[in-house]
Write a structure and sequence with these properties.
The structure holds two protein chains of two kinds. By secondary structure, chain A is an all-alpha fold. Chain A contains eleven helices and no strands. Helix content of chain B is 16%, strand content 43%. Chain B has a domain at 102-216. Chain B has helices at residues 5-28, 83-88, 93-101, 103-106, 129-132, 220-224, 293-305, 422-427, and strands at residues 35-42, 50-58, 67-71, 74-77, 116-118, 122-128, 141-148, 154-161, 171-180, 183-192, 197-206, 213-214, 218-219, 229-233, 242-253, 259-270, 275-278, 318-323, 326-332, 336-343, 348-356, 373-374, 378-381, 384-391, 398-405, 410-419, 428-437. Chain B is globular, with a radius of gyration of 25 Å. Chain B is built from eight helices and 27 strands. In chain B, strand 5 (116-118) and strand 6 (122-128) form a beta hairpin. Classes of the chains: A mainly alpha, B alpha+beta. At the A-B interface, helix 1, helix 6, helix 7 and helix 11 of A face helix 1 and helix 2 of B.
């Protein structure tokens, strides 16, 4: 293993160690919230059945027939599943800021020591990026396992005759949130990840601009972010500007978008590399 | 290396779970479903001129609900498309076929199937500016393009439409275009949302002798009188001389805002003479012979005497279809239809005979949501009658098709769309969209 790869792994491991408590906290929050989410709708369903039986003076079977089967879809669409995902996404977004600023605003100016390490400074940049991605995918992986566990739990708690026959994978495929989080549609997953990667790289560039040029850098960073957003959505307005919505076929529009987002990502890396190597002040 | 155990652990965890999920996804996903034409009578190759989109929905497994395109006698599972193919896919087999064959001609044009008309040698596009630029409202500027299939020569025109004096409209739409190259007959519907005035106008345009402004050669509401609504028949052959029209009037509005028409008349518009001819009711026709008069009269009376309730009113009592120089008229009797030929010059109906229908509604279901067209599920092409519908004999309905020979009044084919799996058929709902007939000689594929 080359020296630079070793140093990169060490740096990434170091970054991960520093944030692991937050990640474990998010994982724990996700699992507890999900667990409540798996049990609560079942209790609610049983309560509905009971109330309906009493109000209509009918048997359990008739109440089940009237109210329909219990679908795990009801669990997947509950706030107990969506809320920890929103918290996870928000936390990782904030962490993208925190991972840089704590080097300057911590107890000591750790940035000085970090940038004095005998490794290329871009390794610091990429180790922080990789750590964020490890955090994102860890949370998604935990959510995947949680859903499988929750489905088994629901099957134990609900009688087979009352359970909706749709298999779990079918419900995952048709769920709005999981269609974006889980790799069920290759094209959509690629698009979401490309947008996410570009977003994180742009945030890193804004932070490094601010660290390099203070308030002016922050202003410049915001302008850059605005430019990238315009670049990303511009192809979708070509038809509006040209007065013809059908000027480009949708595949052509998406290819242009992918190319522009890839260029923005590469541009952000090159600019960040320049800033971190030559402009940043400690 | 021990110091990196957390990093290794996290990465390994992610890889194992993601790979495991993908393996589960592939193994747990249902087997790919296939649709087939199950034949009850005749040969399935009679379906080769029919194309449509079949949407499936499995109540017990949402994932097993793919869409299919039926073209050239076989089904294509649309889930098997590549990412970029799926992005460009349009839910109209005829528009997809045009995109496949004439991508540069279709570029920049509204991708609505009724905006394209294909003949043996040309593809004609007729649409309004507002169809491609959604910021433009109430544009009376009609865009016309023609593509010569063999020379690939393209001609483009922008034409201003005049509408009758005293009328102003906000919405314009092309209902259909008939072509005898280089002459076009364009049927346009206009709607004024202020006074709710709706006009159906017919324009003529010559591609070889173009003009900047077109005045209508016919204003159907004005010519038919009595207010109401004019519907234009959907069409298979753009060279047909006669255009069937249905005039609905004596309108009542229900408390739910639904419009109910208690009177209906049928007409044909002659593209050569630009005249309208009324189709006589079966009881009025003097030359109708050999018919079952008692039942004919009772059905006509039902149509004429009803007072607007949807239960006793059947707007589909009469069927009017055309092909080339012929006008076919039929009396709907549910399980059968009584066929006549209509002589436009003498305005006479000549009885041909009775055709059995596979069920009492096949081909006679009203499916146009905008109510500007009729004959949506029954067409004549190359002397054959094509009808589609839904058979609700099973718990979940299956789309059914019937192809009949109009000369001999024999059923050539009758069948349904199903899967190979009888258990799956019990839980699968199949709906047909964008049902189209492609006449012989107009091959839909490359």
């Amino acid at each position: 293993m080359s020296h630079s790869v070793k140093s990169f792994i060490k740096l990434t491991s170091f970054e991960l160690e520093r944030i692991s408590k937050v990640f474990f906290g998010l994982i724990g929050f996700t699992l507890i919230s999900n667990l409540i989410g798996y049990i609560f709708p079942i209790l609610r369903f049983n309560q509905d059945i009971e109330e309906y039986m009493i109000s209509q003076n009918i048997s359990v079977e008739m109440a089940h027939d009237a109210l329909g089967p219990f679908s795990f879809d009801r669990v997947l669409n509950s706030g107990w599943i969506a809320f920890p995902i929103v918290i996870g996404v928000t936390s990782i977004g904030l962490y993208a800021l925190f991972t840089w600023y704590r080097e300057w605003f911590g107890k000591n100016t750790f940035a000085y020591r970090l940038f004095m390490l005998p490794v290329p400074r871009t390794q610091v940049f990429f180790s922080k990026l990789v750590t964020i991605y490890i955090g994102i995918y860890s949370l998604i992986a935990v959510q995947m396992l949680s859903v499988f566990g929750g489905y088994q739990l629901t099957n134990w708690l609900i009688a087979d005759a009352v359970m909706d026959p749709n298999p779990l994978i079918s419900l995952i495929h048709s769920n709005f949130l999981f269609a974006y989080l889980f790799p069920v549609d290759t094209g959509l997953y690629f698009t979401i990840n490309l947008i996410g990667l570009t977003g994180i790289l742009v945030v890193f560039t804004i932070i490094l601009l601010e660290r390099s040029y203070a308030l002016k850098g922050f202003g410049l960073g915001l302008m850059y972010a605005g430019f990238v957003i315009v670049l990303g959505i511009l192809p979708h307005f070509i038809g509006e500007f040209a007065g013809n919505r059908y000027l480009l076929f949708y595949s052509e529009l998406m290819i242009i978008t992918y190319i522009l987002l890839a260029l923005a990502s590469i541009g952000s890396i090159i600019w960040s590399r320049h800033l971190i190597n030559r402009k940043i002040t400690i | 290396m021990n110091k990196q155990y957390k990093l290794i652990g996290f990465v390994a965890f992610i890889l194992i779970v993601f790979i495991g999920f993908k393996v589960y996804d592939v193994s747990a996903s249902p087997e790919q479903m296939n649709l087939t034409v199950s034949t009850e009578l005749g040969e399935a190759d009679q379906m080769e001129d029919i194309q449509f989109i079949a949407h499936t929905f499995n109540y017990t497994n949402y994932q097993q609900s793919p869409n299919f395109e039926f073209r050239d006698g076989s089904f294509q599972n649309l889930n098997n498309q590549s990412m970029f193919e799926a992005m460009d896919y349009h839910f109209s087999p005829s528009v997809n076929s045009l995109i496949d064959r004439y991508r540069s001609f279709v570029r920049g044009k509204s991708q609505s199937p009724n905006h394209f008309t294909e003949t043996d040698n040309h593809v004609i596009y007729t649409a309004f500016m507002s169809d491609v630029d959604w910021n433009v409202r109430g544009s009376d500027k009609l865009l016309i393009s023609s593509l010569n299939k063999s020379t690939e020569e393209e001609k483009d025109f922008e034409v201003n439409l005049q509408i009758p004096d005293g009328s102003s409209s906000y919405y314009y739409s092309v209902v259909d275009t008939y072509v005898n190259y280089s002459e076009l007959t364009i049927i346009v519907n206009t709607y004024n949302s202020t006074n709710e005035e709706e006009l159906t106008l017919i324009y003529e345009f010559d591609i070889e002798n173009p003009t900047d402004t077109l005045t209508p050669v016919a204003h159907l509401e004005s010519e038919l009188g009595q207010g109401g609504k004019v519907q234009v028949s959907t069409n298979v052959n753009p060279a047909n001389r006669y255009i069937p029209l249905r005039h609905l009037y004596d309108i009542e509005e229900t408390m739910y805002g639904e419009m109910i028409y208690s009177s209906v008349d049928f007409y044909v518009y002659d593209r050569q003479t630009q005249e309208l001819t009324a189709i006589p009711s079966f009881e009025d026709s003097a030359t109708m012979v050999d018919g079952d008069d008692s039942s004919d009269n009772s059905q006509s009376d039902t149509a004429n005497e009803n007072n607007g309730t949807s239960d006793d009113y059947s707007p589909d009592e009469m069927i009017v279809l055309t092909e080339n120089e012929s006008v076919y008229v039929a009396q709907n009797k549910g399980e059968s239809v009584e066929w006549y030929t209509f002589n436009v010059e003498s305005a006479d109906l000549q009885q041909v005979g009775t055709l059995d229908m596979a069920n009492e509604s096949i081909g006679r279901e009203f499916v146009d949501y905008y109510q500007t067209t009729f004959n949506n599920t029954m067409h004549v092409s190359d002397g054959k009658l094509y009808a589609s519908g839904v058979d609700f004999n099973q718990e979940i309905g299956a789309p059914v098709f019937q192809v009949s020979d109009l000369a001999s009044l024999e059923i050539l084919f009758y069948g349904a769309i199903q899967t190979d799996d009888p258990e799956l058929n019990e839980v699968l709902e199949i709906s047909v969209y964008e049902y189209e007939i492609i006449p012989d000689g107009l091959e839909s594929n490359d």
